[in-house]
Amino acid sequence: xxxxxxxxxxxxxxxxxxxxxxxxxxxxxxxxxxxxxxxxxxxxxxxxxxxxxxxxxxxxxxxxxxxxxxxxxxxxxxxxxxxxxxxxxxxxxxxxxxxxxxxxxxxxxxxxxxxxxxxxxxxxxxxxxxxxxxxxxxxxxxxxxxxxxxxxxxxxxxxxxxxxxxxxxxxxxxxxxxxxxxxxxxxxxxxxxxxxxxx
Length: 199
Ligand SMILES: NC(=O)c1ccc[n+]([C@@H]2O[C@H](COP(=O)([O-])OP(=O)(O)OC[C@H]3O[C@@H](n4cnc5c(N)ncnc54)[C@H](OP(=O)(O)O)[C@@H]3O)[C@@H](O)[C@H]2O)c1
Known about the structure:
Layout: E1 2-6, H1 10-21, E2 25-29, H2 36-45, E3 49-52, H3 54-60, E4 63-66, H4 73-80, E5 87-90, H5 100-107, E6 112-115, H6 122-126, E7 129-130, E8 133-134, E9 136-141, H7 144-156, E10 160-165, H8 167-188
Parallel strand pairs: 1-2, 1-4, 2-3, 4-5, 5-6, 9-10
Antiparallel strand pairs: 6-9, 7-8
NADP nicotinamide-adenine-dinucleotide phosphate (NAP) binds next to helix 1 and helix 4.
């Protein structure tokens, strides 16, 4: 698929390098698409990756990954232009009690929003396999086809996608994950994964 990565930091850089390596085409949407940091990232990402402005990347992508600070969302949607029909993956998290999910769904207009890649640290996304068991990735959204496509993108890079339903269910999952983080991160640091076993 053609994937636009708006954001080329920890999450955008990690996911896009993996997607490019698995055969997808990626364009980073950046404020500085020709700078040294981007040139270095493109060297690491290989021939399937390119960089452009946010508008250029948004036009290129069938799928847009939003991997930016939540404070920038309004500006980025304005820069991106019309996203009707495109799949927008929202992995942004706010830590002030407000919902990044509701805000993105409001700003995204007629785009097809899927919430995913926000419940794992980038270190686990980069290396999701633990003794041959892959970490689960929770996915939600109202558009079943868009959710299936994003789940496929997660599986392509070795994650175990788990469809939790819609926004209300994801809000409960997020609450549980924050509670577990308080227990496990002092014990194991950031680099632990969760797996949902099911039959
Ligand atoms: N880090 C994690 O493990 C993790 C896990 C789950 C969810 N998240 C969420 O994912 C999002 C990204 O986190 P991150 O750790 O990847 O952040 P990061 O490393 O700081 O990267 C943020 C990226 O956003 C870009 N950016 C900022 N403002 C922009 C604008 N107006 N237009 C275009 N690009 C812009 C930055 O570009 P410049 O390089 O030009 O500044 C940078 O590439 C956050 O919402 C975070 O809550 C992070």
